[in-house]
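Appendix B, record 7
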Amino acid sequence: MKFLELNKKRHATKRFNEKPVDPKDVRTAIEIATLAPSAHNSQPWKFVVVRERNEEVANIAFGSNQDQIKSAPVTIALFTDTDLAQRARKIARIGGANNFSEEQLQFYMQNLPAEYSHYDDQQKSDYLALNAGLVTMNLVLALTDQGIGSNIILGYDKSKINEVLEIDERFRSELLITVGYTDDKLEPSYRLPVDEIIEKR
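Structure tokens (predicted):
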């Protein structure tokens, strides 16, 4: 599918039918999503695929998000790794000599952790949010390419999600993505004309 057509097919899906979503399709979409760029190739992502605990997640969502999560066959909870130094070393450890030169291994094992040690809380937060946004867009487009609907949700109690899903506090909750099929006819949202958002200097 051409990229323009793919983007035109992606709409926020907020009501789902009862058709199940194949776990293999979700895994494929996540695998595609992880091809997204990330700063320093840090890939600070953690995906939690929620099926059995959907209702528990719904209970900490706000407003109409509760019903949306309850009706979705799958909710993907996206977390980012706040221990960036450990994440860098993990990439080096798993990638190893087969994928990296000695110089690259040095970068992940020592140079990058040293750089991260200078980040203040705001820098780290901005860094994680940027990478979360990049991978999220890839994920919803990958789902769309398979004919699966999705919606990105920010309205939930992030202070409780780690406990509900039994995720180590090292990982920061970024957002939820509801996933499934719909019988609704989805219409595109209004977009500003491109000339309204471009300036030339």
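Remarks on this record: The mean pLDDT is 96. The helical segments are 3-9, 23-33, 54-58, 65-71, 84-99, 102-116, 121-145, 158-165.
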